[in-house]
Amino acid sequence: MTFDELNIKKYFKTNLRELGLRDLTLIQERAFPAVMSGRDVMGIAQTGTGKTIAYLLPSLNLWKFTPRHEPQIIILVPTRELVLQVEEEVKKLAKDSGIMVVGVFGGAGIQPQAARIREGADVVVGTPGRVLDIALHGLLRFGGVRRLILDEVDEMLEQGFRNQIGRVLDLLPRRRQNLMFSATMTDEIEQLADTFFNGPMKIEAAPMGTPLENIHQTVMSVPNFNTKINVLANLISSSEEMKRTMVFVSTIAMADEVFDKLSKRLAESGVGISLDYLHSRRTQSQRFSTLRSFRDGETDILIATDLIARGIDIEGVSHVICFDLPFEPEQYIHRIGRTGRVRLAHPEDENDTTIVVDEGHALSFCTPAEETALVNIEGLMKTTVERVPMPEGIEISDVLIEAEMPQIRMRNSLTELDATPGKAFHERSEKNQKTNHRVSHRTLMRQKYGKPIKRRPKK
């Protein structure tokens, strides 16, 4: 099915053509009639399947003009980066429609965001905490809200937003449509839907764990952290194809350390490759600037935590490197989904709307300690990832970082001491071996008088 076949307003069709979108993906084709029916919807589809358009297009098509431009649609997402991306998608899709959108998130002043809402906001996109803060300050009114959308809800719950989401939903009008889109379905998501949704319709497309056919996945056995750095520096400096690469790590500390060591290695080799890093401890302006530079091609290599492993759409990423394997196998799917994405064949030609899917490459480093994580990932995808050898001439480091050091187990003096009595041990004297036992009044009276003495009833 194509977008031109849908019963949508003319300016949406025009804007979709300008964005180079012609054919609906499976989740979009299934979501459109479900959302347009007015029913609550739970959409399950993995990353890169077009979930954003799947809920935005029918929701915006149902929007009705009001002179005051009060919020009719509330969209909750887990990160500020995703707030900006969804806000931009609304602007592109709703161009020339008169629909006004405002994005709100923490780490920025609440008053400027509230001022933008007062100027007019038909759609509010925000993180749960900031939307709740603005509402509780009386700066955001929910009386006109007709539609609530929870995007990447599994990630929001994982980040601990359950209470904020619940409080926002409690503040919204009861008569509303609820839409939930997620890559996975968990018990907590089911409980949330049971509490706040009204008989939701479930739609599913490309369930989590389905191998991405356009992504060539490989795994390389590497003994330790410093050898991983040696391999990564070699691959980046020797391959012309890896000038647009995302390197994923599991922790903030790991991101800092990989950036520092890789920067030094590339500087020593004299290779003109720019790299940057992104995680939640960087300032808001640094995070936005880093992501923008990578999107615009000013940065070649981006080292990042799983903060941007899902939801963020960046065209042209040729390679994804999993520097360490994630603990949750689903997170691996999100990471590698940053490559092998849909794009316009000739974006410079406005008349050419040919869509192509680039081939992506995903390489994972795996130490002996990470073998279990690899088995879990392969079990989720129901496939075996191809093993590749390390490049020739790589220096195998025997220097371990602190996290790789063997754990020294200290003796617990309270639980592991020899239980055999020593010289300082003395048996209790006979009089000190008595034990106290509580005896009831009834028992004492029976022992003294041969029968229980009943107390007189109180007057």
What can you tell me about this protein's structure?
This protein is of the alpha/beta class and 459 residues long. The protein contains 15 helices and 16 strands. It has helices at 10-18, 26-36, 51-61, 80-93, 110-119, 128-136, 153-158, 162-171, 187-196, 225-238, 252-269, 284-295, 329-336, 371-381, 441-449, and strands spanning 41-45, 73-76, 101-104, 123-126, 147-151, 177-182, 201-205, 215-221, 245-248, 275-278, 301-304, 319-322, 342-344, 355-357, 360-366, 386-388. Helix 2 (26-36) runs parallel beside helix 3 (51-61), helix 6 (128-136) crosses helix 8 (162-171) and helix 10 crosses helix 11. The longest helix is centred in the middle third of the chain and has 18 residues, at 252-269. Mean pLDDT is 86; it is low at 415-419.
Summing up helix and strand content along with how strands pair, one would put the structural category as: alpha/beta
Q: Beta-strand level of the residues, as a percent range?
A: 15-25%
Low-confidence stretches: 415-419
Total of DSSP H or I helical runs spanning 4+ residues: 15
Main sheet: which strands, in order across?
A: 3-4-2-5-6-1-7
- How large is the radius of gyration? 30 Å
